[in-house]
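Worked problem 6 (solution included).
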Amino acid sequence: MIRKIHTFPDDVLRKKAQPVENIDIEISELINDMTETMYSQKGVGLAAPQVGVSLRVVVIDTSAGEDPGALIQLINPEITASEGEQTGEEGCLSIPGEYEPVRRYNKVTVKALNPAGENIELEAEGFLARAVQHELDHLEGVLFIDRIPPYKRDIVKKHIKRRIADGDYGYAEDIKS
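Solution. The predicted structure is:
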């Protein structure tokens, strides 16, 4: 089921997500719904808070659905190591239409649970590392605009306020309602 994506400045995007205590049918459905929602918007990542659920769950596919083996689903992920640096443009399904360069680690190691409840370790580099860090930020209530200089953040926020006032912010189904 495709879920509604919550957009900035929705409060759920600023809360620290809670750990998943038990991987049950509800968590499995959440993961499946998040994956379907991400693909429906041609995104490369989605965190549970973005669909209004304050739990530590993310899905990532840097191929945007082009490579069936590229889907990564993580529960309670934590970065355990990082190195290097990269800067690249980022956008976010929760801040549609806004893109800014963000500095991130070039390589990260993440420990997490997979949907079967097994401990896994993921090593990510380049664009995948960027996507992982972006999604894990969501679990801490951090948005990519928090990682840009304050003057740029102010410009983005003003732009969003103007788009909200014009009724041109969010997704078509949100704007209609």
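Discussion: The two ends are 19 Å apart (CA to CA).
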